[in-house]
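Page 47, continued from p. 46.
Same chain as before, 434 aa.
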Amino acid sequence: MPPVSTEDYAPRTGYDGACIMETGRVTGHAAMAETDRHTAAPGTPADLSAWLALKDRALDVSAEGITIADARLPDRPLIYANEGFERMTGYPVAEVLGRNCRFLQGPDTDAAAMAEIRSALAETRECVVEILNYRKDGTTFWNRLSIAPVRDPSGEVTHFIGIQSDITARRLAEDGLRRAKEALEADLRLAARVQQALLPPASIDAGGLRISHAFNPCDDLAGDAVGVVPLPDGRMGLYLLDVSGHGVGAALLSFTLSHLLSPAVEGALITDRTAAGPTVVPPAVVAGRLNRQFPMDRTRQYFTLVYGIIDPASGGFRYALAGHPAPVLLPRDGPPSPVSGSGLPIGMIDDAVFEDQSLALEPGDRLFFYTDGAIEALDDREEEFGVARLMEQFSRWRALPLRDGLDRVAAAVRAWCGGRLKDDVSLLAVERTG
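Result:
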């Protein structure tokens, strides 16, 4: 079709209210009719006016707003708008013809989206933006606007076609999801702070003992729990546990267990109340009680545990293992080695049996507890950090203060996996100092 100007067109309304253009150029009609004869499918109306009317009605039933702007005239005025545009914006077609489409913009319209539209028009290229527009009544809607240049046979851009889609419902849903996500993340950060607050002090001196820990969750919330519990008879309860899985579910069970493994809780698992006063429950009995209280068929989770009772005066340590990696004993003048003991994870089997083990720490000896996240950390070759490397780290930093040595060990594990922990890494250590 040959280039046209606005004088060639006079808008009129017809065909169910659709706004179309009448041309006064017979040659233009003839060219379009000739084109239609070659491109029309079987059953296409032969009469040009009927064919154009059919096309116009097809555009008007579209749910999308469709506009055409003349690229050759100053300010690129609209020369066509369909009924979908009128339904979407509230502007009658007769009011928008001859105007630039920026009348849809308002005070809250994104400047970056407007700049992208201006750039695309100046560079005669396609663009797609999501932009906040204003209806005639002042209400806003989100518009997915697609603009494409239309070229004549010589390649000159003569018009721009714009297709508007009302995506308000989608954007509102996305905003709702984003707000919910932000609220959830804020709650998780608060829960993480609470979890950190439940941890024992980073370093504790208790009689002839020094106790330290390092806590490295892989997410905001950890499924590991570390505890140092003063017992009624002057001894100390030490535990390290690891709940299966990650995230909120594992953290909730971890919170619950930390609460239960406290002598201040009525009906606590680690002490019994008698007429003579509270008595300390042996570690194997504690593990059995937990196993009965948290069966896997009810909680859908299990956890591993090492729990022990240490006497600050004598260095005697009585402990039980429940599916947890064995602690590592580092004598003052000897190589590190895992301690004896084994047992099934808590909750896995109803009638699991747990046994107490005993050892004695001599002055200068250290005992290290760890969760499997430390030994299962993977490097780029998918090789695990492993027990041997962990014991070598315990030995390597024996001359440092206990807390500093634990921090060096935790740093070595993080470095092994490039800082990308896939599981919580928790360490607990006790040293007999006198």
